[in-house]
Amino acid sequence: MDRKIAWTAALLLSFGSVSVSAAQDPTAPLGWVASGKSQAKGQPRLPQLQSIICDGAQCSVILSGEVVSLGGRVNGYTLTHVSDSSVTLSRGGKKWHLALFAENIRTN
């Protein structure tokens, strides 16, 4: 009897070490893990305007966690204009106007 319980416990514990994710592809080979890289190619994500800091004539901007000065680049976008409440980014001949507290992003 004790041997049966020991075997049952060992069998149950061995199943506990196997992890199956609901997001896992059921048709993938056993042990195969998808890479973390995204296969989608296209335009880099538009940086998020977080802050504008002006000290006299010199202004710096925080875009997606990076401090950027006029002419600086983030994710392929160039900071071309800074005002007290908005910035202009350019990339590939297009311009994006980002306002600090606006809900809309304008494209030219």
TrEMBL record:
Keywords: Signal
Signal peptide: 1-22
Taxonomy, superkingdom: Bacteria
Annotated protein name in UniProt: MSHA biogenesis protein MshK
Organism of derivation: Photobacterium leiognathi
Lineage start: Bacteria, Pseudomonadati, Pseudomonadota, Gammaproteobacteria, Vibrionales
